[in-house]
Amino acid sequence: MVIALIEEAKVSYIFLEWTEFLVRWLHVIAGIAWIGSSFYFIALDLSLLKRKDIPKEAHGEAWQVHGGGFYQIVKYLVAPDKLPSQLTWFKWEAYATWISGFLLLILIYYISADLYMIEIEKFDLSNLEAISLSLIGIILGWVLYNYICKKTVKKNNIMLSIFILLVFTFFSWLYFQVFSHRGAYMQIGSMLGTIMVANVLMIIIPGQKKVVQSLLENKKPDSIHGITAKQRSLHNNYLTLPVIFIMISNHYPTIYATDYSWIIISLIIITGALIRQFFNIKHSGKKPPYLLWVPVLMIILFSVYLSEKGKPNLANNDERANAIIEQIPKDLKLASEEIIISKCSMCHAQEPLWENMTHAPKKIHLENVNDIIKHIDNIYSQAIVSYAMPPGNITGLENSERKILSKLHRFVKNL
Ligand code: HEC
Predict the structure, then answer these.
(1) What's the pLDDT score for residue 316?
(2) How far apart are the CA of 392 and the centre of ligand 1, in A?
(3) Where along the chain do its domains lie?
(4) Spatial separation of the C-alpha atoms in residues 197 and 105, rounded to whole Å
């Protein structure tokens, strides 16, 4: 469908791929800068020690060695008596991550909502309806979360976390009823990512600005800003790993596109939080709680089991595939089959002949025309419009052969 659209609009596939790739590049870089600095500050915070010789308003001090020099870092909580003349803020890493992420969401999911968000069998949404539902969710997720946090800021953080987890499990379930698997998965990722950035934009930075303002007016800053910022930083800390998991999982269909993928999201939120907990304790200089890896491993194994349980049942579904194949001209069928048998199936087979290869890469079997039809889109991007396959053109796939596969691709798409 998309390919037909591209051909009509005369926008080159390669141009679109580049655009998407550049935004993704930015997204990953901004994400690394943000998460990197956030990991750094958490570890720094946990390593602060109270020493006698630090200023009396200071909270703690740490020494670090890096890049050929020593750093002496002193933390003031809520703030030093006087505002320093030069102050570095950490916020654009977070904002740039969100902006580029939202652009990606538009470029991939919203523009092709029919492909990546809507599943007509669940709900026959129009593109606009799907996009609206997604935007409403992103805003509602934040509003609800923010409300719950504000109500409970001085109360038990564990109960709050469990409650938030339950709310998001409900959202996951809900979006899996309405959207396609992939759409629902990315929706939850977008909602959680938005919460993390909104914590920075709406709570942490404004709080810090108020503190700075108080200092400028020679007033004592309100300690509530420190408490709130700490709570939200803590949430961001625990959400980091799950959000990254969701963001990269859309390249792994067995993770996002099985019946129980919505439960897997919640399990991964718990897993990510446990892994962070391990490192938080380790960085604070205490004995690392190695036992935490037991539940982590068990939950991950259980998630694998859920993926296996929730996969589609393919028994007795050959009829339709056969009907399509009937229509392909005999020559094209034979030629394509010959190409993949001679150039692909040494690796992409039930029992690959390639040395040390125990199963077909990415479980893609290419041994007959049925297989080609099944993977036609993937073959298009891997071997027709790019040289990704065969790897290093190791089997010498010629351009004339790519052309034949391209003919088959067009034929199947136009059926
Ligand atoms: C020498 C072994 C080998 C040969 C020959 C080979 N492939 Fe692959 N193929 C791989 C490996 C390894 C991967 C997994 C790459 C990765 O992990 O990203 C792969 C992945 C793929 C994928 C999935 C890409 C994805 O990320 O979804 C497709 C489609 C594919 N190959 C098509 C082909 C086609 C078509 C041919 C023949 C023209 C071919 N391959 C020949 C080894 C091979």
Answers:
(1) 62
(2) 10
(3) 13-52+88-309, 324-414
(4) 15
Give the residue, by CA position, lying nearest to ligand 1 atom 36: 344
CA of 6 from ligand 1 middle (Å) equals 25
pTM of the model: 0.77
Which of 382, 393, 395 is the best mutation target for the ligand 1 pocket, counting ligand atoms within 8 Å of the beta carbon and taking the most? 382
Q: Tell me the per-residue pLDDT of 229-269, one tens digit each, with 9 for 90 and over.
A: 888 988 998 899 999 999 999 888 888 888 899 999 999 99
52/397: higher pLDDT? 397
Query: pLDDT at position 367, please?
Result: 94
pLDDT at position 379 over 50: yes
Q: Determine the Cα angle at 351 with ends 348 and 355, to 5°.
A: 80
Asked if residue 335 lies in contact with residue 402, where contact means CB atoms within 8 angstroms, the answer is no
Rounded CA separation 373/52 (Å): 73
Residue identifier of the C-alpha nearest atom 12 of ligand 1: 361
